[in-house]
Amino acid sequence: MALGAVLACGGSATGPAPSTPRVDFVDGAIEPLLVRGQTIVIEGFGFGDSQGSGAIDFPRVGGGAVSAPVPSSGWSDRLLRSTVPDSAASGVLTVTSADGRHLTATVHILPHVPFDPATLAWQSRPVFPGAPAGVALAVAAELQGSGLRIAVYAAGGGEPLGGDSSIVPDSAVFAGQVTPGGALSGWTPLRVLPAARAYAAAVAANRFNSRLNGHALYVIGGVDSTGRARATVFQALGSADTVGPFTTIEALPAPVAGAMAVVRRGRIYVMGGTDSLGRPQTNVFVGRIGLDGHIDGWFVEPSLPTPRAYGGGVVLDDGVRVFGGMADSATAGGGLDTLQTRLTSADSAPTSLLSGFFTGGWAPAAAPFAQGRSQFATLPFGDVILVVGGVYAGAAGGGAETLAASVSGDSLGDFTGPVGTNTIFAFGGGALVGPAGITWLDGDGTGHGLVLGGVDLVSRERRAAVWGF
Fold first, then answer.
1. How far apart are the C-alpha atoms of 424 and 295, rounded to whole Å?
2. Taking a C-beta distance cutoff of 8 angstroms, is the pair 289, 265 a contact?
3. Of 78, 94, 402, 421, which residue is most buried, by most CB within 10 angstroms?
4. 422-464, pLDDT tens digit by residue?
5. What's the number of CA atoms in the CB half-sphere (13 Å) around residue 30?
Protein backbone atom coordinates (compact mmCIF):
# COMPACT_ATOMS: atom_id res chain seq x y z
CA MET A 1 0.00 0.00 0.00
CA ALA A 2 -0.79 4.89 0.02
CA LEU A 3 -0.74 8.48 -0.35
CA GLY A 4 -0.04 21.81 -3.93
CA ALA A 5 0.70 20.80 -0.38
CA VAL A 6 -2.41 18.71 -0.03
CA LEU A 7 -3.05 17.46 -3.61
CA ALA A 8 -5.25 20.46 -4.33
CA CYS A 9 -6.16 19.63 -7.89
CA GLY A 10 -8.88 17.89 -9.89
CA GLY A 11 -11.96 16.16 -8.52
CA SER A 12 -15.21 17.62 -7.27
CA ALA A 13 -15.37 19.94 -4.28
CA THR A 14 -18.09 19.94 -1.67
CA GLY A 15 -18.56 21.20 1.87
CA PRO A 16 -18.16 24.52 3.64
CA ALA A 17 -16.55 27.54 2.00
CA PRO A 18 -12.77 27.78 2.46
CA SER A 19 -13.16 30.53 5.06
CA THR A 20 -15.09 28.33 7.51
CA PRO A 21 -12.88 26.88 10.28
CA ARG A 22 -13.31 23.12 10.36
CA VAL A 23 -11.72 19.68 10.48
CA ASP A 24 -12.02 18.05 7.06
CA PHE A 25 -10.15 14.74 7.31
CA VAL A 26 -8.16 12.82 9.88
CA ASP A 27 -5.38 10.66 8.46
CA GLY A 28 -6.81 11.08 4.98
CA ALA A 29 -10.29 9.82 5.87
CA ILE A 30 -13.73 11.18 6.77
CA GLU A 31 -14.20 8.87 9.76
CA PRO A 32 -10.88 7.10 10.22
CA LEU A 33 -9.97 3.85 11.90
CA LEU A 34 -6.88 4.67 14.01
CA VAL A 35 -4.56 2.65 16.23
CA ARG A 36 -3.24 3.85 19.59
CA GLY A 37 0.31 5.14 19.22
CA GLN A 38 -0.19 5.86 15.51
CA THR A 39 1.13 9.11 14.03
CA ILE A 40 -1.67 11.03 12.32
CA VAL A 41 -2.30 14.14 10.23
CA ILE A 42 -5.41 16.33 10.58
CA GLU A 43 -6.54 18.41 7.58
CA GLY A 44 -8.84 21.40 7.77
CA PHE A 45 -8.84 25.18 8.05
CA GLY A 46 -8.61 27.82 10.76
CA PHE A 47 -6.34 26.02 13.23
CA GLY A 48 -4.07 29.06 13.52
CA ASP A 49 -0.60 29.67 12.13
CA SER A 50 0.98 28.69 15.45
CA GLN A 51 -0.29 26.47 18.24
CA GLY A 52 -0.40 28.99 21.07
CA SER A 53 -3.12 27.69 23.38
CA GLY A 54 -4.43 25.30 20.72
CA ALA A 55 -4.81 21.60 21.50
CA ILE A 56 -5.90 18.22 20.12
CA ASP A 57 -8.07 16.15 22.50
CA PHE A 58 -9.33 12.59 22.16
CA PRO A 59 -12.00 10.90 24.27
CA ARG A 60 -10.34 8.97 27.09
CA VAL A 61 -11.01 5.34 28.00
CA GLY A 62 -13.21 5.51 31.10
CA GLY A 63 -14.42 9.06 30.43
CA GLY A 64 -13.10 12.56 30.02
CA ALA A 65 -10.51 13.61 27.46
CA VAL A 66 -6.79 13.11 26.83
CA SER A 67 -4.57 15.59 25.01
CA ALA A 68 -2.48 14.42 22.08
CA PRO A 69 1.09 15.66 21.66
CA VAL A 70 1.95 18.08 18.87
CA PRO A 71 5.61 18.49 17.81
CA SER A 72 7.01 22.00 17.40
CA SER A 73 6.71 21.83 13.62
CA GLY A 74 3.38 20.00 13.65
CA TRP A 75 0.94 22.93 13.79
CA SER A 76 -0.19 25.11 10.89
CA ASP A 77 -3.44 26.74 9.86
CA ARG A 78 -4.47 23.83 7.60
CA LEU A 79 -2.49 20.80 8.80
CA LEU A 80 -1.76 19.29 12.20
CA ARG A 81 0.54 16.41 13.13
CA SER A 82 0.02 14.35 16.27
CA THR A 83 0.02 10.86 17.80
CA VAL A 84 -3.00 8.91 19.05
CA PRO A 85 -2.63 8.68 22.87
CA ASP A 86 -2.39 5.25 24.50
CA SER A 87 -5.58 5.93 26.50
CA ALA A 88 -7.60 7.32 23.57
CA ALA A 89 -11.09 5.94 22.90
CA SER A 90 -13.49 6.13 19.97
CA GLY A 91 -15.73 9.17 19.75
CA VAL A 92 -15.39 12.84 18.90
CA LEU A 93 -11.90 14.28 18.48
CA THR A 94 -11.71 18.01 19.28
CA VAL A 95 -9.23 20.49 17.87
CA THR A 96 -9.08 23.71 19.88
CA SER A 97 -7.73 26.34 17.52
CA ALA A 98 -5.27 29.02 18.55
CA ASP A 99 -8.16 31.51 18.87
CA GLY A 100 -10.27 29.16 21.04
CA ARG A 101 -12.63 27.61 18.48
CA HIS A 102 -13.64 23.97 19.01
CA LEU A 103 -13.55 21.95 15.78
CA THR A 104 -14.58 18.29 15.82
CA ALA A 105 -14.39 15.01 13.89
CA THR A 106 -15.48 11.43 14.61
CA VAL A 107 -12.69 8.87 15.00
CA HIS A 108 -12.59 5.16 15.79
CA ILE A 109 -9.73 3.87 17.92
CA LEU A 110 -8.32 0.34 17.93
CA PRO A 111 -5.89 -1.01 20.53
CA HIS A 112 -2.27 -1.44 19.52
CA VAL A 113 -1.59 -5.19 19.64
CA PRO A 114 2.04 -5.96 18.72
CA PHE A 115 2.28 -8.66 16.06
CA ASP A 116 4.57 -11.53 17.05
CA PRO A 117 5.89 -13.32 13.92
CA ALA A 118 6.87 -16.35 16.01
CA THR A 119 3.20 -17.12 16.69
CA LEU A 120 2.11 -16.99 13.05
CA ALA A 121 0.11 -20.14 12.21
CA TRP A 122 -1.14 -20.68 8.65
CA GLN A 123 -4.60 -22.15 8.11
CA SER A 124 -6.33 -23.04 4.86
CA ARG A 125 -9.15 -20.81 3.62
CA PRO A 126 -11.78 -21.42 0.89
CA VAL A 127 -10.10 -22.16 -2.45
CA PHE A 128 -10.12 -19.30 -4.96
CA PRO A 129 -12.53 -20.04 -7.86
CA GLY A 130 -10.85 -17.75 -10.40
CA ALA A 131 -7.58 -17.67 -12.32
CA PRO A 132 -5.06 -17.64 -9.45
CA ALA A 133 -1.82 -16.18 -10.87
CA GLY A 134 -1.30 -12.44 -10.51
CA VAL A 135 -4.59 -11.70 -8.72
CA ALA A 136 -5.12 -8.14 -7.47
CA LEU A 137 -6.23 -8.25 -3.80
CA ALA A 138 -7.83 -5.48 -1.74
CA VAL A 139 -9.41 -5.28 1.70
CA ALA A 140 -11.96 -2.86 3.15
CA ALA A 141 -12.84 -2.31 6.82
CA GLU A 142 -15.84 -0.44 8.18
CA LEU A 143 -17.91 -0.25 11.33
CA GLN A 144 -20.63 -2.82 11.90
CA GLY A 145 -22.35 -2.51 15.24
CA SER A 146 -19.70 -2.61 17.94
CA GLY A 147 -17.18 -4.36 15.68
CA LEU A 148 -15.68 -4.18 12.22
CA ARG A 149 -16.89 -5.59 8.94
CA ILE A 150 -13.97 -6.80 6.79
CA ALA A 151 -14.48 -7.43 3.07
CA VAL A 152 -11.87 -8.97 0.75
CA TYR A 153 -11.88 -8.35 -3.02
CA ALA A 154 -9.97 -10.36 -5.64
CA ALA A 155 -9.83 -8.99 -9.19
CA GLY A 156 -8.46 -10.39 -12.41
CA GLY A 157 -5.53 -12.77 -12.36
CA GLY A 158 -4.39 -15.24 -14.98
CA GLU A 159 -3.93 -18.86 -15.96
CA PRO A 160 -0.26 -19.79 -16.53
CA LEU A 161 0.56 -21.76 -19.67
CA GLY A 162 3.71 -23.85 -19.90
CA GLY A 163 4.81 -23.01 -16.34
CA ASP A 164 6.08 -19.47 -16.84
CA SER A 165 6.01 -19.14 -20.64
CA SER A 166 2.84 -17.04 -20.74
CA ILE A 167 -0.19 -15.94 -18.76
CA VAL A 168 -3.79 -15.80 -20.00
CA PRO A 169 -5.40 -12.90 -18.04
CA ASP A 170 -8.90 -13.11 -16.58
CA SER A 171 -11.60 -10.49 -15.93
CA ALA A 172 -13.51 -12.11 -13.04
CA VAL A 173 -13.94 -10.32 -9.69
CA PHE A 174 -14.86 -12.01 -6.40
CA ALA A 175 -15.60 -10.88 -2.85
CA GLY A 176 -15.50 -12.58 0.53
CA GLN A 177 -16.38 -11.60 4.09
CA VAL A 178 -13.95 -12.15 6.97
CA THR A 179 -15.13 -12.98 10.46
CA PRO A 180 -13.28 -12.10 13.70
CA GLY A 181 -10.32 -14.42 14.02
CA GLY A 182 -9.53 -14.27 10.30
CA ALA A 183 -11.84 -16.95 8.84
CA LEU A 184 -13.11 -16.32 5.29
CA SER A 185 -16.74 -16.99 4.40
CA GLY A 186 -16.09 -18.01 0.80
CA TRP A 187 -16.02 -16.28 -2.59
CA THR A 188 -18.97 -14.56 -4.29
CA PRO A 189 -18.68 -13.49 -7.96
CA LEU A 190 -19.18 -9.78 -8.67
CA ARG A 191 -19.23 -7.71 -11.86
CA VAL A 192 -16.42 -8.49 -14.30
CA LEU A 193 -13.71 -6.05 -15.33
CA PRO A 194 -14.12 -4.21 -18.68
CA ALA A 195 -11.01 -6.09 -19.87
CA ALA A 196 -8.90 -8.95 -18.57
CA ARG A 197 -5.98 -8.02 -16.29
CA ALA A 198 -3.25 -9.92 -14.45
CA TYR A 199 -0.57 -8.55 -12.09
CA ALA A 200 -2.58 -5.38 -11.49
CA ALA A 201 -2.96 -3.58 -8.15
CA ALA A 202 -6.29 -3.25 -6.32
CA VAL A 203 -7.56 -0.72 -3.77
CA ALA A 204 -10.83 -0.57 -1.82
CA ALA A 205 -11.98 2.81 -0.52
CA ASN A 206 -14.67 4.06 1.87
CA ARG A 207 -15.17 6.83 4.43
CA PHE A 208 -13.01 4.97 6.95
CA ASN A 209 -9.81 5.05 4.87
CA SER A 210 -10.31 7.87 2.37
CA ARG A 211 -12.18 11.05 1.44
CA LEU A 212 -14.88 9.03 -0.35
CA ASN A 213 -18.25 8.99 1.42
CA GLY A 214 -19.26 5.72 -0.21
CA HIS A 215 -17.65 2.50 -1.40
CA ALA A 216 -15.37 1.91 -4.38
CA LEU A 217 -13.04 -0.75 -5.76
CA TYR A 218 -10.14 0.18 -8.05
CA VAL A 219 -8.03 -2.07 -10.30
CA ILE A 220 -4.85 -0.34 -11.43
CA GLY A 221 -2.66 -1.23 -14.42
CA GLY A 222 -1.85 -4.88 -15.08
CA VAL A 223 -1.17 -7.12 -18.07
CA ASP A 224 -3.84 -7.42 -20.77
CA SER A 225 -4.76 -10.33 -23.06
CA THR A 226 -1.91 -9.45 -25.46
CA GLY A 227 0.65 -9.78 -22.65
CA ARG A 228 1.33 -6.05 -22.43
CA ALA A 229 1.08 -3.82 -19.37
CA ARG A 230 -1.62 -1.17 -19.45
CA ALA A 231 -2.09 2.23 -17.77
CA THR A 232 -5.82 1.77 -17.20
CA VAL A 233 -7.60 2.32 -13.90
CA PHE A 234 -10.97 0.60 -13.50
CA GLN A 235 -13.40 1.76 -10.80
CA ALA A 236 -16.62 0.24 -9.47
CA LEU A 237 -18.83 2.12 -7.02
CA GLY A 238 -21.19 0.19 -4.78
CA SER A 239 -22.10 -0.68 -1.22
CA ALA A 240 -20.62 -2.69 1.63
CA ASP A 241 -22.11 -5.83 0.06
CA THR A 242 -21.52 -5.49 -3.67
CA VAL A 243 -20.16 -3.29 -6.45
CA GLY A 244 -21.73 -1.81 -9.55
CA PRO A 245 -20.35 -1.95 -13.09
CA PHE A 246 -16.69 -1.08 -13.62
CA THR A 247 -15.85 2.07 -15.55
CA THR A 248 -12.54 3.48 -16.77
CA ILE A 249 -11.30 6.54 -14.87
CA GLU A 250 -8.06 8.57 -14.73
CA ALA A 251 -5.27 6.46 -16.25
CA LEU A 252 -1.73 6.23 -14.91
CA PRO A 253 0.86 8.35 -16.74
CA ALA A 254 2.45 5.14 -18.12
CA PRO A 255 1.63 1.42 -18.44
CA VAL A 256 2.61 -0.71 -15.44
CA ALA A 257 2.36 -4.28 -14.14
CA GLY A 258 3.99 -5.92 -11.16
CA ALA A 259 4.48 -2.60 -9.37
CA MET A 260 5.04 -2.02 -5.67
CA ALA A 261 1.61 -0.53 -4.91
CA VAL A 262 0.73 0.82 -1.45
CA VAL A 263 -2.34 2.61 -0.04
CA ARG A 264 -1.79 5.00 2.87
CA ARG A 265 -3.87 7.89 4.22
CA GLY A 266 -6.25 7.92 1.26
CA ARG A 267 -3.42 8.03 -1.27
CA ILE A 268 -2.20 5.38 -3.70
CA TYR A 269 1.53 4.98 -4.34
CA VAL A 270 2.54 3.05 -7.48
CA MET A 271 6.30 2.43 -7.66
CA GLY A 272 8.34 0.67 -10.31
CA GLY A 273 6.84 -2.29 -12.15
CA THR A 274 7.28 -3.30 -15.77
CA ASP A 275 6.35 -1.49 -18.97
CA SER A 276 4.40 -2.94 -21.89
CA LEU A 277 7.51 -4.90 -23.03
CA GLY A 278 8.18 -6.46 -19.62
CA ARG A 279 11.09 -4.15 -18.77
CA PRO A 280 11.32 -3.03 -15.11
CA GLN A 281 10.88 0.72 -14.69
CA THR A 282 11.83 3.53 -12.29
CA ASN A 283 8.50 5.40 -12.43
CA VAL A 284 6.76 6.54 -9.23
CA PHE A 285 3.17 7.87 -9.24
CA VAL A 286 0.99 9.16 -6.40
CA GLY A 287 -2.76 9.77 -6.61
CA ARG A 288 -5.37 10.65 -4.00
CA ILE A 289 -8.85 9.16 -3.91
CA GLY A 290 -11.13 12.16 -4.42
CA LEU A 291 -14.43 13.21 -2.92
CA ASP A 292 -16.34 11.78 -5.89
CA GLY A 293 -14.33 8.57 -6.10
CA HIS A 294 -12.15 9.70 -8.97
CA ILE A 295 -8.38 10.08 -8.60
CA ASP A 296 -7.35 13.71 -8.00
CA GLY A 297 -4.66 13.40 -10.65
CA TRP A 298 -1.67 11.06 -10.81
CA PHE A 299 1.45 12.95 -9.76
CA VAL A 300 4.85 11.96 -11.11
CA GLU A 301 7.29 11.74 -8.19
CA PRO A 302 11.11 11.27 -8.12
CA SER A 303 12.20 8.16 -10.01
CA LEU A 304 13.70 5.09 -8.35
CA PRO A 305 17.52 4.92 -8.57
CA THR A 306 17.31 1.66 -10.55
CA PRO A 307 14.52 -0.25 -12.29
CA ARG A 308 12.55 -2.51 -9.95
CA ALA A 309 9.54 -4.78 -10.43
CA TYR A 310 7.85 -7.65 -8.55
CA GLY A 311 9.29 -6.51 -5.22
CA GLY A 312 7.83 -5.06 -2.03
CA GLY A 313 7.13 -1.58 -0.70
CA VAL A 314 5.86 0.26 2.35
CA VAL A 315 4.89 3.86 3.09
CA LEU A 316 5.96 4.86 6.59
CA ASP A 317 5.39 8.17 8.40
CA ASP A 318 8.01 10.35 6.72
CA GLY A 319 9.46 7.97 4.19
CA VAL A 320 8.90 5.28 1.60
CA ARG A 321 10.88 2.06 1.21
CA VAL A 322 10.99 -0.43 -1.67
CA PHE A 323 12.92 -3.70 -1.47
CA GLY A 324 13.75 -6.83 -3.43
CA GLY A 325 12.32 -7.55 -6.85
CA MET A 326 13.87 -7.74 -10.30
CA ALA A 327 15.80 -5.27 -12.47
CA ASP A 328 15.97 -7.40 -15.62
CA SER A 329 13.26 -8.06 -18.18
CA ALA A 330 11.13 -11.17 -17.72
CA THR A 331 7.88 -12.73 -18.80
CA ALA A 332 4.64 -11.53 -17.21
CA GLY A 333 4.74 -12.26 -13.49
CA GLY A 334 8.54 -12.41 -13.38
CA GLY A 335 8.97 -16.01 -14.51
CA LEU A 336 10.39 -19.05 -12.72
CA ASP A 337 14.01 -18.90 -13.87
CA THR A 338 15.99 -19.35 -10.66
CA LEU A 339 19.23 -18.36 -12.42
CA GLN A 340 17.96 -14.84 -13.14
CA THR A 341 19.29 -12.23 -10.72
CA ARG A 342 16.94 -11.10 -7.94
CA LEU A 343 17.60 -7.95 -5.90
CA THR A 344 18.74 -7.91 -2.28
CA SER A 345 18.74 -4.12 -2.24
CA ALA A 346 16.35 -1.46 -0.97
CA ASP A 347 15.77 2.20 -1.83
CA SER A 348 14.25 4.89 0.39
CA ALA A 349 12.88 8.39 -0.14
CA PRO A 350 11.55 11.05 2.24
CA THR A 351 7.89 12.00 2.15
CA SER A 352 5.74 14.50 3.98
CA LEU A 353 3.30 13.01 6.46
CA LEU A 354 1.26 16.18 6.04
CA SER A 355 1.00 16.31 2.24
CA GLY A 356 1.75 12.74 1.18
CA PHE A 357 4.19 13.99 -1.45
CA PHE A 358 7.87 13.19 -1.73
CA THR A 359 10.16 15.82 -0.22
CA GLY A 360 13.35 14.54 -1.83
CA GLY A 361 14.83 11.96 -4.15
CA TRP A 362 15.53 8.28 -3.65
CA ALA A 363 18.75 6.89 -2.23
CA PRO A 364 20.05 3.36 -1.64
CA ALA A 365 19.12 1.98 1.79
CA ALA A 366 20.63 -0.89 3.76
CA ALA A 367 19.88 -4.16 1.96
CA PRO A 368 17.20 -5.96 4.04
CA PHE A 369 17.64 -9.36 2.35
CA ALA A 370 20.59 -11.70 2.84
CA GLN A 371 19.90 -13.07 -0.66
CA GLY A 372 18.03 -11.85 -3.71
CA ARG A 373 14.26 -12.31 -3.60
CA SER A 374 11.33 -11.37 -5.84
CA GLN A 375 7.69 -12.21 -6.53
CA PHE A 376 6.66 -12.44 -2.87
CA ALA A 377 3.60 -11.19 -0.98
CA THR A 378 4.23 -8.23 1.35
CA LEU A 379 2.20 -8.21 4.58
CA PRO A 380 2.61 -5.04 6.70
CA PHE A 381 1.51 -4.90 10.36
CA GLY A 382 2.64 -1.46 11.51
CA ASP A 383 5.65 -2.52 13.55
CA VAL A 384 6.41 -5.71 11.58
CA ILE A 385 6.49 -6.57 7.87
CA LEU A 386 6.29 -10.13 6.55
CA VAL A 387 7.32 -11.38 3.11
CA VAL A 388 5.82 -14.68 1.97
CA GLY A 389 6.97 -16.93 -0.86
CA GLY A 390 8.79 -15.78 -3.97
CA VAL A 391 11.93 -16.81 -5.84
CA TYR A 392 15.12 -16.97 -3.78
CA ALA A 393 17.98 -19.42 -3.25
CA GLY A 394 16.45 -22.54 -1.70
CA ALA A 395 12.87 -21.56 -2.53
CA ALA A 396 12.20 -24.99 -4.05
CA GLY A 397 12.41 -26.46 -0.56
CA GLY A 398 10.40 -23.71 1.16
CA GLY A 399 13.27 -23.09 3.58
CA ALA A 400 12.66 -19.36 4.01
CA GLU A 401 8.98 -19.21 3.09
CA THR A 402 8.09 -16.40 5.51
CA LEU A 403 10.55 -13.78 6.77
CA ALA A 404 9.92 -10.84 9.12
CA ALA A 405 11.45 -7.38 9.50
CA SER A 406 10.80 -4.87 12.28
CA VAL A 407 9.64 -1.32 11.66
CA SER A 408 10.51 1.51 14.03
CA GLY A 409 9.37 4.94 12.91
CA ASP A 410 10.82 5.29 9.42
CA SER A 411 13.42 2.55 9.86
CA LEU A 412 13.10 -0.94 8.39
CA GLY A 413 15.19 -3.78 9.82
CA ASP A 414 16.55 -6.87 8.07
CA PHE A 415 14.24 -9.67 6.97
CA THR A 416 15.08 -12.75 9.03
CA GLY A 417 13.55 -16.13 9.72
CA PRO A 418 11.89 -18.33 8.79
CA VAL A 419 9.12 -17.33 11.20
CA GLY A 420 5.89 -18.96 12.29
CA THR A 421 4.80 -22.23 13.85
CA ASN A 422 4.16 -23.94 10.50
CA THR A 423 4.52 -23.35 6.75
CA ILE A 424 2.35 -23.44 3.66
CA PHE A 425 4.99 -25.62 2.01
CA ALA A 426 4.73 -28.25 4.77
CA PHE A 427 0.95 -28.37 4.26
CA GLY A 428 1.51 -29.31 0.61
CA GLY A 429 0.81 -25.78 -0.61
CA GLY A 430 3.90 -25.67 -2.78
CA ALA A 431 6.77 -23.22 -3.07
CA LEU A 432 4.61 -20.24 -3.96
CA VAL A 433 5.82 -17.72 -6.53
CA GLY A 434 3.77 -14.56 -7.02
CA PRO A 435 1.07 -15.00 -4.36
CA ALA A 436 -1.11 -11.98 -3.64
CA GLY A 437 -1.38 -10.79 -0.03
CA ILE A 438 -3.35 -8.46 2.26
CA THR A 439 -3.54 -7.64 5.98
CA TRP A 440 -6.18 -6.17 8.30
CA LEU A 441 -7.01 -5.66 11.97
CA ASP A 442 -9.91 -7.09 13.97
CA GLY A 443 -11.90 -4.75 16.16
CA ASP A 444 -9.71 -5.77 19.12
CA GLY A 445 -6.56 -4.75 17.22
CA THR A 446 -5.41 -8.29 16.38
CA GLY A 447 -3.64 -8.49 13.03
CA HIS A 448 -4.54 -11.00 10.31
CA GLY A 449 -3.18 -11.79 6.88
CA LEU A 450 -4.12 -13.71 3.78
CA VAL A 451 -2.19 -14.96 0.74
CA LEU A 452 -3.83 -16.22 -2.42
CA GLY A 453 -2.75 -18.18 -5.45
CA GLY A 454 0.55 -18.11 -7.28
CA VAL A 455 2.56 -20.75 -9.13
CA ASP A 456 4.45 -23.63 -7.51
CA LEU A 457 8.15 -23.24 -8.31
CA VAL A 458 8.69 -27.02 -8.27
CA SER A 459 5.71 -28.38 -10.22
CA ARG A 460 5.28 -25.16 -12.27
CA GLU A 461 1.54 -25.57 -11.77
CA ARG A 462 -0.92 -22.91 -10.66
CA ARG A 463 -2.10 -22.91 -7.06
CA ALA A 464 -5.63 -21.75 -6.26
CA ALA A 465 -5.30 -22.36 -2.52
CA VAL A 466 -5.81 -19.52 -0.04
CA TRP A 467 -3.98 -19.33 3.30
CA GLY A 468 -4.56 -17.07 6.27
CA PHE A 469 -3.86 -16.44 9.94
1. 37
2. no
3. 402
4. 999 999 999 999 999 999 999 999 999 999 999 999 999 999 9
5. 17
